[in-house]
């Protein structure tokens, strides 16, 4: 697997459809966490706030991977029942629209967690 140093290089190498979905996710996350800074970690785009990573995302062949912390997956388990999840991953198939409202809720929950609220 190719190693990337920044989000622009990562996005440029994605196939057109995957790039389009990843760009929508990137813009959604930037809007949901306006105080966060984009970063690149574990070879994935991520958002960082108050020195802590909020969430990661990555385009795979069959789905967009969204990586909040396990606490968010547990807290939103009922809303995530239609998605394949694991301890720290939510898989969003490309043939389904991004669950915008849910993603915003998960990010808000994580921001509150990082701020200690």
Supply database-style keywords.
4 helices; 38% helix; Aspartate Aminotransferase, domain 1; globular; alpha+beta; single chain; six-stranded antiparallel sheet
What's the arrangement of strands in the largest beta sheet? 1-2-3-4-6-5
Estimate what percentage of residues fall within beta strands.
25-35%
Number of helices: 4
- Coarse morphology: globular
Flag low-confidence runs: none
| Beta strands, count | 6
Largest sheet: 6 strands, antiparallel
CATH topology: Aspartate Aminotransferase, domain 1
* Number of discrete domains: 1
How far is it from the N-terminal to the C-terminal residue, by CA? 38 Å
Percentage of residues assigned to helices: 25-40%
Element order: H for helix, E for strand: HHEEEEHEEH
By CATH reckoning, the class would read Alpha Beta
* Rg over alpha carbons: 13 Å
Chart the SSEs and their pairings.
Elements: H1 7-12, H2 16-32, E1 37-41, E2 44-49, E3 52-59, E4 63-67, H3 70-75, E5 84-85, E6 90-93, H4 100-115
Antiparallel strand pairs: 1-2, 2-3, 3-4, 4-6, 5-6
Account of the protein in words:
- The chain has 117 residues and is an alpha+beta fold.
- It has one domain (7-115): Alpha-Beta Complex (Aspartate Aminotransferase, domain 1).
- 38% of the residues lie in helices and 26% in strands.
- It is built from 4 helices and 6 strands.
- A 6-stranded antiparallel beta sheet has the order 1-2-3-4-6-5.
- A hairpin with a 2-residue loop joins strand 1 and strand 2 (44-49).
């Amino acid at each position: 697997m190719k190693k990337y140093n920044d989000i622009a290089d990562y996005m440029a190498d994605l196939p057109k459809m995957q790039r389009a979905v990843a760009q929508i996710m990137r813009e959604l996350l930037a809007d949901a966490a306006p105080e966060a800074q984009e970063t690149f970690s574990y070879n994935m785009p991520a958002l960082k706030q108050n020195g802590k990573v909020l969430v990661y995302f990555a385009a795979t062949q069959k789905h967009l991977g969204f990586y909040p912390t396990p606490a968010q997956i547990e807290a939103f388990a009922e809303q995530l029942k239609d998605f394949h999840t694991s301890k720290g991953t939510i898989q969003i198939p490309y043939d389904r629209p991004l669950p915008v409202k849910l993603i915003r809720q998960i990010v808000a929950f994580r921001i509150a967690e990082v701020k200690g609220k």
